[in-house]
Amino acid sequence: MLQSIDVGPTDPILMLLAQYHADPNPEKIDLGIGVYRDHKGRTPILKAVKQAEAHLLKHEQSKAYLGPAGDPTFNTLVTKLLLDDQLTREPALSETLCTLQTPGGTGALRVAGDLIAHANPHATLWLSNPPWVTHRPIFSSAGLQLGYYRYFDPIKRSLDFEGMKEDLRDAAPGDVVVIQVAGHNPCGCDLNLQQWEELSSLMLDLNLTPLLDLAYHGLCTGLESDLLGLRVIQRHHQEWLLTYSASKTFGIYFERTGALIIHCKDKAVTQDVRQEALNLICGNYYMPPGHGASIVTTILESEELNQQWRKELNKARLRISDCRKLLTDSLNGTTAWHYRFLNHQRGMFSYLGLSETQLSELREQHSLYIGTGGRINVAGINEKNVGRVCEALKAVQRQTGG
Ligand SMILES: Cc1ncc(COP(=O)(O)O)c(C=O)c1O
C-alpha cells in the first residue's frame, strides 16, 4: 500500500528551514521562518511567560483531559482580550458567541475549514493573492474549493484594494472570504479603516461570510489598533469567524495555542454551531494541548504579568519597525530606491517580490534564506547581519538588472 504513495509538495517554509540547517556557513542568515527575533537573532521566552510557568509549576493541580473546547477560562479571557467590551459583557450578546481553544492558529483555521465544508460544501473560500502559504493546504485538506482575490500589486508594491473588490464581486452568495486582520503574511500590507468599511459593505451586499485570521496581534501598530478590522466586522456582520494565534503574541510557538471565535445570528444557531464544531474536533485531534493555554490564562489573570507581557510585546513591536528602518537606511543607490516601500509596510513580514532565480542565488552565493516570492521576516535583521543582507540584495538586483 505505502510503496506507491503519491507524495504532495513539501511545505515551502519547512523546506527552506531544512536548507538553512544544512548550510555549513557560520555566517548564514535566516529571514525565512516566521518567528520574532531579538537584536541578537534569538527567539527569547518572554519574562511574563517564564513567570507564568513558574507559577504553574507550583500551583497546577491536574493535567486531566479538558474536553474538545479546551479551557473555559482561557476561552473567556481570549474573547475579552479581542472583542469589544459590549459584546462580551452583555449576556444577550455573548450568547451569540462561541470560543474554542485550538492547537495554534493553524488548528483554528482547520476547524473553521471543516465547519464551513460541513455547513456549505459548495462554498468557495477566497484567499488573498499571495496567501499565507499554509492557508492553501489547510483549506484544501478540509475539502474546500479555493478562489483568490488580488491583494498585493507587485508593480506598485502596495495593497491592490480595487483589484480585491473586483475579484470578490465574482464570489457566489455563501462563499467565505479569508482576510488577515493585521500584519498580512507575506505582504505586510493591511487595509485601512475606510477600506475595511467598504469591504464589509461589499461582503454584506454579496452575502459573503468573513473569516478573519489574526496571527500578529500587538506586533503591528498596537494591541488595540491591530483590531481595527475586527471591530468593523463585529459592528456590521451577524455571522463571522475569527481565528487567533497566540504563537507570536505570547512567543509560545511550539505550545500550539490558539482559538476559534464564531459569531452567529442568534443563540439557537450558536448552540448548534458550537456542538458541530466540537464533533468535528472530536473526529480530528480530540482536544487541544493545555500548557500554552495555561500560560496565557495565568498571564491574563494576573495584573502584574499582564503588564509585564504588554511591555515586552510593545518592545518587540517597536524593534520590528526599527528593523525596517535599519534595512532601508543601510541600503543605498538604486537598491534603496527599489526597496523604499518597506517603510510603508507593517508587521513582521515584507514581500520583496524576488524571482526563484534570485532566491536560489541568495541561498547559494550569499547563504541568505528568504521565503517564497521574497517574503522576509523583518525581525531577522540586526546590526550584525544588515550589511551582508544589503550586499546580497544589491548583488542579485545587479545580476538580473531589476
Ligand atoms: C497568517 C497566519 N495565520 C495563522 C498562522 C498560524 O499560527 P500558529 O498555528 O503557529 O499559531 C500563521 C503563522 O505563521 C500566520 O502567519
From TrEMBL:
Organism whose genome encodes this protein: Pontibacterium sinense
Gene Ontology biological process: L-phenylalanine biosynthetic process from chorismate via phenylpyruvate
Xref: PANTHER family: ASPARTATE AMINOTRANSFERASE, ASPARTATE AMINOTRANSFERASE, MITOCHONDRIAL
Similarity annotation: Belongs to the class-I pyridoxal-phosphate-dependent aminotransferase family.
Assembly and oligomerization: Homodimer.
Cofactor or coenzyme needed: pyridoxal 5'-phosphate
Entry keyword annotation includes Protease: no
Name under which the protein is recorded: Aspartate/tyrosine/aromatic aminotransferase
Transcription regulation is among the record's keywords: no
Coiled coil: 299-326
Membrane-crossing segments per the record: none
Cellular component GO terms, alphabetical: cytosol
Annotated GO MF terms: identical protein binding; L-aspartate:2-oxoglutarate aminotransferase activity; L-tyrosine-2-oxoglutarate transaminase activity; pyridoxal phosphate binding
Gene3D superfamilies from the UniProt entry: Aspartate Aminotransferase, domain 1, Type I PLP-dependent aspartate aminotransferase-like (Major domain)
